[in-house]
Each structure stands twice: as C-alpha cells, then as structure tokens.
C-alpha cells in the first residue's frame, strides 16, 4: 500500500472514530435514552437537536465517501482490518475526553490490534 493510499484509509478511519466520539458527546447530556412507540418522535428530535450528533453523522457521511475512494485503490482484505485502528483511537480518546477506564487488558488488546494492523498492512 502506498503512503497516499494509507493516509486516505487512515483519514476514513479517523473520521469514523471521530463520529463515534461526537455521537457519545451528543447523547451524554441526555442520559440513558428510553425509546418506545409513545416517545419515539420526541426522543428523535431531542437527539437530533444536539449539535455533536449532527456533526457525528456528518463525519460518517464524509468517512463513507473517503472509504469508497480508498477501496478503489486497495484490496478490501487490506483496507478493512485498518478499521481496527478506530478501536484504539476511540479507547484512548474516550479515556482522555470522557474519563473512561483503560485497564491493563484494554492496553494489551490495543497493542495486539496495532500489531495485527501492522502485519496486515505489510502483507
């Protein structure tokens, strides 16, 4: 994989990871959502009224466009494992932004993911 293609794939991964973080930031002030037939519309408007939700959904749309361009340049069996980098980015960012726990097992898992991505990218 060439460096420009890798950067394109990485951009898609980072946009996807950013979308997850924005969605979490958007629902955090709302607390646990209760969805039922009687509350479906009001909950949807409440969620969609949060700017981080709109920004997160926008990141998803852009990430899909970038991902399609990336897939046109590299085999899906190489590109798809790169999405695993999003787990590492999200775990570290969630720890930093939201105070989520990162214990030894999670760090070990992230190191295994990074090693796997490195192996896959070099095959």
N/C terminus separation? 9 Å
How many domains, as an integer? Answer: 1
Number of helices: 6
Q: Please provide the ordered H/E string of secondary-structure elements.
A: HHHHHH
Query: How much helical structure, as a percent, in the residues?
Result: over 70%
**Overall 3D shape:** globular
Structural class, by secondary structure, is mainly alpha
How many strands? 0
Overall mean pLDDT score? 91
Lay out the secondary structure:
Blueprint: H1 3-27, H2 40-48, H3 51-71, H4 76-82, H5 85-98, H6 104-121
Explain what the structure shows.
This protein has one domain (3-121). The mean pLDDT is 91. With 123 residues, it is mainly α. The chain has helices at 3-27, 40-48, 51-71, 76-82, 85-98, 104-121.
